[in-house]
Design brief:
The chain has a domain of 226 residues: Beta-galactosidase, Chain A, domain 5 (Distorted Sandwich), CATH 2.70.98.10. It is globular and about 50 Å long. The protein has 3 helices and 25 strands. A hairpin with a 2-residue loop joins β3 and β4. With 325 residues, it is mainly β. The strands form 5 sheets. It has a 9-stranded antiparallel beta sheet, with no helix packed on it. Strands 7, 13, 14, 16, 17, 19, 22 and 23 form an 8-stranded antiparallel beta sheet that branches. Strands 2-3-4-5 form a 4-stranded antiparallel beta sheet, covered by helices on one side. The chain binds 6-O-phosphono-alpha-D-glucopyranose.
Amino acid sequence: MIPASLRALLDATDGQRRVDWAGREVWLAREPWGELAVSLQGAQVLHFLPASPEAATAEGASSAPDEAQAAGASASQDDAEESLVPGGWLWVTPSPQALPGAIRGGIPLCWPWFADERTADESPDRSGPLHGPARKADWRLEAVDEHEEGLELHLTPVERLHSQLVPRAVVQANAQRLHVELITEHVGETPVKITGALHSYLAVVEAHACRVEGLAGARYLDKLADFAEREQQGELGVRGGLDRLYHTNAELVLDDGGRRLRVARQGSDSAVIWHPGDTLPDDTSAEASRHFLCVESANTRLDPVWLVPGAQHLLGTTLSLASDA
Ligand SMILES: O=P(O)(O)OC[C@H]1O[C@H](O)[C@H](O)[C@@H](O)[C@@H]1O
């Protein structure tokens, strides 16, 4: 579910190319296996639509223009805002912030800390940005390789983001799945504590009618209740705003009534589930916000990672259709 202007650029793409979208350089692929869009600001995957027959039949997965009615084009919406076009597994706001702001949507890379935890923040007064500097930084596309009848992209930041830590991102896309990994290499001399997230904005029919399976019985910290510790009773039904850090490495399934998306995580014992509810961010309308739910592969205060010199940490997520759909 992406803004119409990004959809139009994809429709005009045959193969692979670089375009300018929302003031950012964005790499696009439209090939027999499916579609992928990656912003070089933040190495942020913005769009993924696999060509597998099952994916194409899932509700909302078509990109045909005449089916673009549902999301974001309603009369209640600000006329100035672009419409959102259904199709794809990720959501991107129709009104992204200008640079140097970050684009809300897709899969932002939060590194080397999650939210306001500021692990590994080297600024003198520990005043680094929410979610760390990586998501707003310029990244370089180092390589595009063939991978399992799809593609594998390798990205690195243009400038050094930390004196001891070096991140890189790998994106694998094919007709069945999207896999993103954020690898942190310690090239320094002293242990460093990191957190982080693959802050996935997953496209849904209606955020407040979603179910997330796999969390029953898990302990979580409720950020909307001053980090109160609670236990998930039964499966999670999303009915309003929520901001929770679940302590689990379980595989999750997001069911929005139309599609059952499996969210597998690697190197992550924290699953963050977030939706702003009525507390809308400045860059997103109420109408547009109805169509995403964040299900994040993360390392949070629940499972920070102490990296020692020479070590690496891989934080990953794999999105695929649940086979029991
Ligand atoms: O608005 P952003 O900086 O992108 O952050 C969006 C959200 O990210 C995470 O999910 C946090 O748990 C939330 O507390 C935060 O509000």
